[in-house]
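If I may wish for something, please sit down with the protein I am sending here and say whether tokens and residues agree:
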Amino acid sequence: MSGEGQLVIGDLGVARLATRGWQPSAVGGLTLGADPVAYAVAAAAHRAGIAIDAFTVRKEPKQHGTAGRVEGCCAAGSAVVIVEDVVTTGGSALQAIRAVEAAGARVIGVLAVVDRQEGGRAALEAAGYSVEALVSASDLGLAAHAG
């Protein structure tokens, strides 16, 4: 959540979206881990002249206000990318995907900062979603957790 980290993650995220050919109107994911990633990517996209906004997916709907799970710039019919700080099992991304699709958006992929290489990528891909990670556990010299 540092300013420097926001700049690095945002720029890397925008570059990776371009590399994959993903052109979302918005990025977001399950609060709290996805929030700084989504905001960093949206800000970096704006600096680059690219229109990408951000949204947040609540873990549970609020009992007042809109009572929705998806807050921010996620319109029905729009193409979005789910973002994650870390993919471990894929469960958080799948929760976000279900909420966003229930709101009528179309998920075109999942972008994570770190893939811990503990089965999350495989679970998401088995569910039909492409996954891109900025780095993996092995890139960082970390052994995958054995259980």
In short: The two ends are 29 Å apart (CA to CA). The domain at 3-132 is CATH 3.40.50.2020 (Rossmann fold).
